[in-house]
Amino acid sequence: MKTALSDADQEFLARAIDLSRHALEDEGKTPFGAIVVIGGEIVSEGTSSVVELADPTAHAEVMALRNAGKSLGRHLFEDGVMYASSEPCPMCLVACYWARLPRIVFGATSHDVAVNGFEDLQLYREMTYPTERRSLREDVASGPLGEQAAEVLRSWSAALPEPVVPKL
Is the Cβ–Cβ distance between 33 and 47 less than 8 Å? Predict the structure, then answer.
């Protein structure tokens, strides 16, 4: 949803875009930047470090979340905002959900990203397909191994101080 951004939003988004622009100076980098802001202060930054770290998950948003976790000593950011140079890919969007960020502000859209050679839109479409139509084969274990894996989860949740609320 396109909305008018506040002056602070514009300032923070400009910083994320500046981070993405620096990728043009470093060979092998891709042009993505992200920051996490809490209480009006930048608590972390991230750039796409996929090639540099040989890590397919080292996208700018994930790196910003990792850096925020390290600097703040926590993994949930219900009080934060993610500013990203581009609309997050499916992995990064879900990482923001896992971090419980209440808001993401971005510049370029997934369409802009796709026009410039990145697969984000294809991956968003892939996630809407039933499992059997996806390009990544997914095999679920049946029998004893599936039961053993589920038992580990049951043991973990049974040991928690509060009852688990199923998220079905």
Answer: yes
Q: What is the mean pLDDT of the chain?
A: 95
List C-alpha distances in Å: 11 to 44, 56, 157.
15, 29, 43
How far is it, in rounded angstroms, from Cα 103 to Cα 81? 5
Active-site annotation holder among 25, 45, 61, 119: 61
CB-based contact 21:35 (threshold 8 Å): no
Q: Is 61 in the active site?
A: yes
What are the φ and ψ backbone dihedral angles of 104, each rounded to 5 degrees?
Answer: -130, 135
Question: If 0-12 CB within 10 Å is exposed, 13-18 middle and 19+ buried, where does residue 143 land?
Answer: exposed
For 129, counting Cβ atoms within 10 Å of its Cβ (0-12 exposed, 13-18 middle, 19+ buried), the class is: exposed
Nearest-angstrom CA–CA distance, 70 and 63: 11
> What is the value of pTM for the model shown?
0.92
143-166: pLDDT as tens digits:
999 999 999 999 999 999 999 999
Q: Is the pLDDT of residue 40 over 90?
A: yes
